Structure formats: structure tokens, C-alpha cells
Amino acid sequence: MFDPARLIAALPELANGATNTVMLTFCSALLSWVVGSVIVVGLLSPVALWRRAGRVYVSFMRGTPALVQLFLVFFALPMIGVHVPPFIAASITLGLNSGAYVAEILRGALLAIPAGQIEAAEALGMRKAALWRRILLPQGIRIALPSLTNELTLLLKTTPLASVVAVTELTFAGQIVIARTFEPAEVLLAVALGYIVVSQALVLGARALERHLAVT
């Protein structure tokens, strides 16, 4: 029989799991945006070697399961003397995996920028670094923001993978509570609600940023 008191007593534990989920999503997203920005420069580079390296990275990350990548980071690295804590291993894996998708999103957005702007900047003698910093990346991010928001919500829903290396994120916290209370339906409903709240907060924040960028 459902006992609301037991579920209420478990809320702090679920809230702690939700906090870990948000932190994991934030750390992974930050890494994925950095990695994606670097990889997209390689993908669009005039140097064939950099283009090939970018394609190999994207193909590997998109062609292998994130779970396998997590096992490689968490279990294989210690074999060569590199010991990574579970939370950091999960953040690195999810960030590197998502970075491949971010790179493709940014590539599509950058290719949508009118070529005339790039030609005008080059005619004025603008250096490559300044061209990327002042023209390509600002406009590319503005165009890519809806797709980046979608990728961020997908990243949030990938965080339960961290439970396999004993990171107590929201789903894992829910499993612990279920094992203690024997109330799976109610606990899973609370877990699902937690993901909805977090994802909607991310979407609302992204929409606010879109409005800000639209008027600047």
C-alpha cells in the first residue's frame, strides 16, 4: 500500500540525486561546447589533416555507444596508471560524446552564414582568429542555439549512464529509494517529474538567451 510519508522522507535523497544530475549535465555540456568548438574548426579547416582528424573523432564518438566510451574512460585508463573519479569520468565521457554532435551542429550553422560576410572580412585583411571570434562563432552560435538546446536536453537524459560507475544521479537515487520502500511507481513518477522540471528550466533559459541574442 502506498505510504506518502515514506516518499516524502525520500525527497531529500532524490533532491541530492537531482543536484548531481544538474552538476553532471552542466560539466558535460561545458566540455562538449569547448570540444565541439575545437572540432568544428578542424572540420572546416583548409588543412586536409585537420579535416580528417575531425571526421575520425566525430565518427568514433557518434558510432560507438556512450556506455562503451564510459567503460573505456573509467576502466581502461587505470590500466595505464590514470585513475579518474567516477563523477569526473562520467563528465568527461558525456562531454566528449556530446562534443561530436555539437561540432556537427556548429558546422551546419557556420555553413549557413552568407559567404559574402567572410569574403568582406578577408578583403579587409581580418586575420583568421579575428574572423572566427568576431564573425563566425557569434553568428554560428545564434543560428545553432535551438539545436544546441535540444542537444543539451538529450545530454540531460543521458546522465543515468553515470550510475554504472556508481555516480548517484537522479535515476540511481530513485533505484536506491525503490529498493528501500518497494514503491516503484510513485518513486519513478517523482524521478520523471524531476527530469521534466530540470529540462524545462534549461529550455526556458535557452529561450531567454535566444530573445537576448535576437535584439543584440
Question: How would you sum up this structure, described in words?
Answer:
The chain has 216 residues and is mainly α. The chain has one domain: MetI-like (MetI-like fold, Orthogonal Bundle), CATH 1.10.3720.10. Helix content is 81%, strand content 0%. It has eight helices and no strands. Helix 1 packs antiparallel against helix 2, helix 1 runs antiparallel to helix 6 and helix 1 packs across helix 8. The chain is flat. The protein starts with a helix and ends with a helix.
Task: List its traits.
single chain, 216 residues, mainly alpha, MetI-like fold, 8 helices, flat
Gyration radius (Cα, Å) is 21 Å
Shape: flat
Ranges with pLDDT <50 over ≥5 residues? none
Order of helices and strands: HHHHHHHH
Secondary structure layout plus pairing:
Blueprint lengths: L3 H40 L4 H16 L2 H11 L9 H26 L3 H9 L4 H31 L11 H12 L2 H31 L2
